[in-house]
Amino acid sequence: MKFEQIMKPDQWILSQTFTVKVEEIPQVIGPTFMKLGGFIQEQGIQILSTPFVSYKNMDENGGLDESAIEMEVGFPVAEKVKNAAEIESDSYFLPSYKALSALYVGRYDDMTEPYFAMMDEIKKIGGKFSGISYEYYLSDEEIPEEQQETIMELVYE
């Protein structure tokens, strides 16, 4: 797996946040993408890049409290969405950040090891993991699980 140090640009976000148990994650992601995507299409909002899921409360080793995972499901958009509250969502400005990025190909359930490898790489380059990760899903559900492509980003200081 090849790692790349990146500087993510400032961007507007339209998203929903949740606190869930680990087993509830799959039931949250799909319906939320559909809800936000439908709203974006209906409102004529310009999407800037791939939708994402972000995990907010990871510890310095990449661990999560599996009974209370803070997650965000969203889309980078061209500007603030003033009526986001209509669909119980938020629209906010996300300042630029440094991240370690990697393309992962495989089953979602097998992403633990790549996360740990990325944590090690952040330490090697003298960084400190911020506790926030982003996953950008490049494949749709029709692609076999072993061939699913995901860009993983771990934010660091």
UniProtKB/TrEMBL annotation:
Residue intervals of the AraC effector-binding domain: 1-156
SUPFAM superfamilies per UniProt: Probable bacterial effector-binding domain
Pfam families, per database record: GyrI-like
InterPro entries to which the protein is assigned, alphabetical: AraC_E-bd, GyrI-like, Reg_factor_effector_dom_sf
Record's protein name: AraC effector-binding domain-containing protein
High-level lineage: Bacteria, Bacillati, Bacillota, Bacilli, Lactobacillales
